[in-house]
Amino acid sequence: MKYAVSSISVIPMRREPSERSEMVSQLLLGECLTIIEEKDSWLFVENAFDGYCGWVDAKTITPVSESYFNEYIEHSGYEASHEICHAYDMNRGDHILIPIGASLNYYNKETNEFEIADKRYKITSSIDVTNHKRSNQIVDMATALLNTPYLWGGRTVFGIDCSGLTQLLYKIIGIKLPRDASQQVNEGITINFVSEAQPGDLAFFDNDEGAIVHVGVLDGKGNIIHSSGKVRKDIFDQQGIFNNRLGKYTHKLRVIKRIIE
Fold first, then answer.
1. How far apart are CA 32 and CA 77, in angstroms?
2. pLDDT tens digit string along 187-207?
3. Residue 47 burial by CB count (10 A; 0-12/13-18/19+): exposed, middle or buried?
4. What is the CATH number that goes with domain 2-123?
5. Is 32 marked active-site?
6. Which of 107, 111, 159, 226 could form a disulfide with 154 if both were Cys (CB 3.0 to 4.6 A apart)?
């Protein structure tokens, strides 16, 4: 088995080995992966953080040893960045953009440094990487992401889909969620009544066939923050999501789940 790490800010994961193929997800800086298949200049990989698979350009990743990979797994992906910032390669001086949710492997709080493969980076500004596991923190971070554009397969502030948003919010506080809404709905405990929902709870929505197709995070005040067209805040009740501008319900509620006890 071969292993690698995402060594640039964001890497598209595609359905087929082509730059024209649909992007199904993204790898964030510092996330480790296993290489399953090689085809020309493309690699079919599995993200160790969430088990998601897709094709990536071989030029965008850096090979790592099995021990490096296992260390990453043991530390659950290391600390995650809470904000966008910059860092520079301490040997070559190259700068790199750190996206929200990046895995800061071997992060040293005293020196503000971290490692990606054989490179050591120093963060050029103060950064919060503590994982508090507080539900109100999730709502604060979700609010900060309002108006982020929707992007199918996206996991960053430059474009994000509904399940990418909820996964990112929980990753920042040190909790792993699967990649897709249809997988995330299997996590946590069920909340039976809307009146019992708390800040940070996840609401899931289905289509006419009963398939889970959407997810958002509740603020505990009768609203939901979700990615639909953009990251937005809408009214939430027992029927689902009500869009004031459209004057109608846009998503039908299936279930509410609590991830943090």
1. 8
2. 999 999 999 999 999 999 999
3. buried
4. 2.30.30.40
5. no
6. 159
Please, what sign has the CA dihedral across residues 176, 130, 221, 153?
A: negative
Q: What is the structure's pLDDT at 131? A: 56
Report domain 135-258's class.
Answer: alpha beta
Across 221-236, average pLDDT: 98
How many Cβ atoms from other residues are within 10 Å of residue 233's Cβ? Answer: 16
Domain ranges of the chain: 2-123, 135-258
Look up 226 and say whether it is catalytic: yes
β-pair type (95-98, 248-258): unpaired
What is the Cα–Cα distance from 122 to 137, expressed in whole angstroms?
26
SS3 letters across 83-124: CCEEEEECCCCCEEEECCCCEECCCECCCCEEEECCEEEEEC
Q: pLDDT tens, 80-129? A: 777 788 999 998 888 999 999 998 888 888 898 998 988 999 998 777 77
Of residues 32, 85, 214, 251, which has the active-site annotation? 214
Q: What is the pLDDT of residue 12?
A: 98
Q: Which residues pair with 189 in a beta bridge?
A: 258
**pTM, whole model, 2 decimals?**
0.94
The angle at the Cα of 27, spanning 23 to 31, to the nearest 5 degrees, equals 165
214 is catalytic: yes
Catalytic residue among 32, 53, 85, 162: 162
- Determine the 3-state secondary structure of 135 from DSSP: helix
| Per-residue pLDDT tens over the stretch 124-136 | 877 777 655 666 7
